[in-house]
Write a structure and sequence with these properties.
Length: about 290
Amino acid sequence: MKHELLIDTETLQQNLGQPGLVVIDVRGRATYEFGGHIPGAVHSTWHDYSDPQAVPKGLLDPDRGRMEQKIRALGISEDSDVVIYSNPFDNWGDEGRMFWMLEYLGHKRLRILDGGWVKWVQERRPFEHGFVTPKPGTFTINPVASVFAGKDDLRHLVKQPHPGTAIVDARSLEEYLGKEISGIPRPGHIPSAIHLAWTGFLHANATVKDLQTITESLADKGLTQDQEIICYCTGGVRSSWLYFIFKLAGYRKVRNYPGSWWEWSRDFACPVEKDTKGLQHILNVAPQGRPS
């Protein structure tokens, strides 16, 4: 194990069945139920906690009672040891989203399975099929405001220089530069945002790269541990994985913007920047749209 926020496959297998351990599989429901899952693992996805009334999918459900009921149904109490896993190569950083959300809602004993389902299967560890329904937990939501960023926070921030705070865009370079995306009203990025793709922090076996390599990658972008970091993407999922990576690297002041570009691009009072020339360059297309 490289870090207290990660747990390795061997340690998890040795602890399966222990009182207080809750393992959450955040892959798709059918994959979990019929494709196999870690023995005893419960199932939940970030979609279960989205605001059902909001168009931007990443916004959290404001109904605290409903959220609390869903989390308790997973068997989670305040003192539960929660381990989250997915297939790291087949999602958008969903394990990071569950980690961030539970941390924001006040849970303090969270880890992500290093290598996830990929490494678990490669090592031929035990699995089971079907759906697990545990005894309900007693978790009570107690939001941690310091890890949450809202649209108004960012809109106020970008109105003036903010050297003490870095805004980090976790999407692809094409999205950051301004590629048109179906369902997104305005392409581009939040002014002053630094591009740092959420991909690139995993080894071929899906385990997280060593902390020195991660730290150097962040430093190469000019990101320092004395800064406050605000991460965003399209719906706050990829950015949650970056949030987790920053936490691994020892950054103390990190926030995630769950509404992200789904919300920001819909509010025309929120400024947007794009780099048409940069996008044309990486797409190898001339300004008039002819191949260069």
